[in-house]
């Protein structure tokens, strides 16, 4: 285990910071002003560059020494544009939830930058950080544990106003909470009820109302519908889409259900073992995937149509996902990949448009971190 | 017929009153056949399986009527000692959560071997050898070394393989799998479903697959029974149901699932919520949420009407639903 910490390789994929509109925030005032400035639709609102989060593994009781690290997120870069939904998919342990926590500044990044309107939020503090936090909100997976059972719905949704009183003055709050309940499709008279009096779908609506309370610009949704039944799932998804239009929100939508992610997302990033394997528009990723992992993932999703039993190619991966404490050298997917060659063990593939597709206007020309990227349709029956 | 469930009723006593979890469920499974039981939480799909398997917690549960005919005998009339012989050797069950279904302080090999010691009277030495064979059979790599390991040393997919090995150990005629892949990642889910289908073919077992996943059902089932509020509302061969559902609830479920192969428009959402089982609406239990509901539906509980020789639908207006 001891040699683990030594081969902590430097982060690959050089950051592309040049295109980030960097405003040198000399004073807090300037930072706050930048954060409160509006962003045009279609412009990048969040730019993530080479984000890294390593959780230390320690040994010993009195004298703890670090013997390694769980590389939960290991060099992730992407942009979120104003008004769009970016889906992030991947299996358990791929680091997608850690990315969410880093974006919320609930975890401190080990390295890398998160630019929100040009301000690196990993380095902000004080008033500027508070202003950022108002604009980036989160909806959690489990509507049963993310609501305090001893608080009324009114107190839960109104609590953000205690920290940001400028959004709703004291006298206005009750009215504002009732408006929010109405917006998410709950009866405003339920304001004095407790969470246990609601079903799972209704609780998730309460969670969404709380997320909306401060008029944020970005909402990060970590598996927001995976705890819900199919019929209720559709209600919540439709609500989220309606709210996005109504309030001009940008979503980061993290989920393991690939069909739901396709439905709601404009662009999709596929993560594997702490890295982004492939990223592109929903058509590029689902209809023209070029990374073998994406292809295997998509081909494994059962389609609700018995006619497609035959004719659809199934790629059954062998083995399990390796431990993020000791990821394979080179390409992290190589231990399960049917295309792997010697090059894959030594060279880390960069997330970029593959050489062979450069300059092409085919939908296969999108960023994919594979040395042997090749288009393959695995979703539609032949 | 391998298994025939006839008019099964199960109730639970709760603080809010009597919850009628299963209200007259009937279905049949043949050897080599896969019947999928599809339903959302609270539809009674797991409770039905527990009653068939004989592992329902009684009390608070109570079987208030019906028959479970397995290989010609009504299991509900058997004594517990005889019932126990049927469990494991005749029918076996695979649960959703392998981690909590395995004993954490006993090596997996011993948990597998115990089946042979208890049911077949084998010596522990022979039983352990059989355990290694079984682990090989469900494709656990290095079975000979791993037979001494504990459940926490296996990944989720591997643990579910051990559950499958346990279920097939005594070569039962029927397997009931309750959401066997729900807790697994999609690539692992595909591995496990493949394995299950292969074993089923090999041993010609009947398989009752309980799930809420319309994709998994489309992939492996021969027939489907859709459950709502403790009743089967539609029963049909798998191809028929996906082509043209004959019950508005089935149609609603199919329409509310987003598709992987195309970007759809707004999802159809069934309005409202599933009923509280202590207060199931009169008439058709689905009527408060149904787009086709009329006066008749509020007062008259529909029986399972015959749509064709192989299909049934518990909807007064199934013809209308079938036409779309």
Automatic annotation (TrEMBL), chain A:
SUPFAM superfamilies: P-loop containing nucleoside triphosphate hydrolases. Residues 46-298 form the ABC transporter domain. Belongs to the ABC transporter superfamily. Coiled coil: none annotated. It comes from Streptomyces composti. Keywords: ATP-binding, Nucleotide-binding, Transport. Gene3D superfamilies: P-loop containing nucleotide triphosphate hydrolases. This is Dipeptide ABC transporter ATP-binding protein. GO terms for molecular function: ATP binding. InterPro entries: AAA+_ATPase, ABC_transp_ATP-bind, ABC_transporter-like_ATP-bd, ABC_transporter-like_CS, Oligopep_ABC_C, P-loop_NTPase. It comes from the Bacteria.
From TrEMBL, chain B:
SMART domains: AAA. Its main location: membrane. Residues 5-254 form the ABC transporter domain. The keyword Phosphoprotein does not apply. CDD domains: ABC_NikE_OppD_transporters. It is a peripheral membrane protein. Pfam families: ABC_tran, oligo_HPY. GO terms for molecular function: ATP binding. The keyword ATP-binding applies. Belongs to the ABC transporter superfamily. This is ABC transporter ATP-binding protein. It comes from Streptomyces composti. The lineage of its organism: Bacteria, Bacillati, Actinomycetota, Actinomycetes, Kitasatosporales.
């Amino acid at each position: 285990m001891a040699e683990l910490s030594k081969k902590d390789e430097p982060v690959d994929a050089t950051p592309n910071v040049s295109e980030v509109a960097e405003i040198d925030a000399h004073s807090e005032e300037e930072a706050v002003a930048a954060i409160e400035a509006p962003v045009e639709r279609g412009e990048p609102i969040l730019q993530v560059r080479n984000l890294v989060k390593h959780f230390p593994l320690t040994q010993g009781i009195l004298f703890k020494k670090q013997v390694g690290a769980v590389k939960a997120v290991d060099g992730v870069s992407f942009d979120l544009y104003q008004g769009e939904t970016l889906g992030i998919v991947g299996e358990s342990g791929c680091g997608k939830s850690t990315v969410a926590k880093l974006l919320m500044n609930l975890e401190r990044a080990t390295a890398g930058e998160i630019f929100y309107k040009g301000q690196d939020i990993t380095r902000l503090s004080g008033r500027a950080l508070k202003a950022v936090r108002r604009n980036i909100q989160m909806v959690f997976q489990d509507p049963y544990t993310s609501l305090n059972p001893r608080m009324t719905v009114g107190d839960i949704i109104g609590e953000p106003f205690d920290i940001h009183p400028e959004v709703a003055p004291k006298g206005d709050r009750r009215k504002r909470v009732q408006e929010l309940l109405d917006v998410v499709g709950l009866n405003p008279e339920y304001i004095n009820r407790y969470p246990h009096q609601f079903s799972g779908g209704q609780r998730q609506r309460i969670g969404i109302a709380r997320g909306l309370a401060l008029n944020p610009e970005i909402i990060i949704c970590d598996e927001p519908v995976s705890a819900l039944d199919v019929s209720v799932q559709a209600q919540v998804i439709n609500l989220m889409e309606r709210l996005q239009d109504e309030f001009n929100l940008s979503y980061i939508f993290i989920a393991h259900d690939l069909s739901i992610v396709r439905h709601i997302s404009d662009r999709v990033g596929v993560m594997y073992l702490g890295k982004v394997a492939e990223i592109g528009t929903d058509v590029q990723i689902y209809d023209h995937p070029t990374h073998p992992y994406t292809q295997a993932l998509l081909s494994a999703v059962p389609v609700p149509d018995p006619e497609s039993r035959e004719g659809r190619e199934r790629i059954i991966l062998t083995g399990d996902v390796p431990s993020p404490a000791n990821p394979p050298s080179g390409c992290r997917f190589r231990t399960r990949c049917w295309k792997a060659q010697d090059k894959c063990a030594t060279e880390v593939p960069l997330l970029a448009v593959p050489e062979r597709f450069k300059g092409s206007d085919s939908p296969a020309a999108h960023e994919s971190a594979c040395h042997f990227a090749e288009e393959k349709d695995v979703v539609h029956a032949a | 017929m391998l298994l025939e469930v006839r008019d099964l009723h199960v109730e639970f006593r709760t603080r809010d009153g009597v919850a009628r979890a299963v209200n007259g469920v009937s279905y049949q499974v043949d050897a080599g056949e896969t019947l999928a039981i599809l339903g959302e939480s609270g539809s009674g799909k797991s409770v039905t399986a527990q009653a068939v398997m004989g592992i329902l917690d009684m009390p608070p549960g109570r079987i208030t009527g019906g028959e479970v005919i397995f290989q010609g005998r009504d299991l509900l009339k058997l004594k517990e000692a005889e019932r126990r012989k049927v469990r494991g050797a005749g029918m076996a069950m695979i649960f959703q959560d392998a981690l909590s279904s395995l004993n954490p302080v006993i090596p997996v090999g011993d948990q597998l071997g115990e089946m042979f010691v208890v049911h077949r009277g084998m010596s522990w030495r022979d039983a352990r050898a059989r355990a290694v064979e079984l682990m090989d059979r469900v494709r656990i790599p290095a079975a000979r070394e791993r037979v001494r390991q504990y459940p926490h040393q296996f990944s989720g997919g591997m643990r579910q393989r051990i559950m499958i090995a346990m279920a097939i150990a005594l070569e039962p005629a029927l397997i009931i799998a309750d959401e066997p892949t729900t807790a697994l990642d999609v690539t692992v889910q595909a591995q496990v479903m493949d394995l299950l289908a292969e074993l089923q073919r090999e041993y010609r077992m009947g398989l009752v697959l309980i799930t809420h996943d319309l994709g998994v059902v489309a992939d492996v089932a021969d027939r489907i029974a859709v459950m709502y509020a403790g009743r089967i509302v539609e029963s049909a061969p798998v191809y028929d149901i996906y082509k043209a559902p004959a019950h508005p609830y089935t149609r609603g479920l199919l329409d509310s699932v987003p598709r992987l192969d195309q970007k759809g428009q707004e999802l159809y959402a069934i309005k409202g919520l599933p009923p509280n089982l202590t207060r199931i609406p009169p008439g058709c239990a689905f009527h408060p949420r149904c787009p086709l509901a009329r006066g008749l539906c509020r007062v008259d509980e529909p029986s399972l009407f015959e749509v064709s020789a192989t299909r049934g639908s518990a909807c007064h207006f199934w013809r209308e639903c079938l036409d779309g």
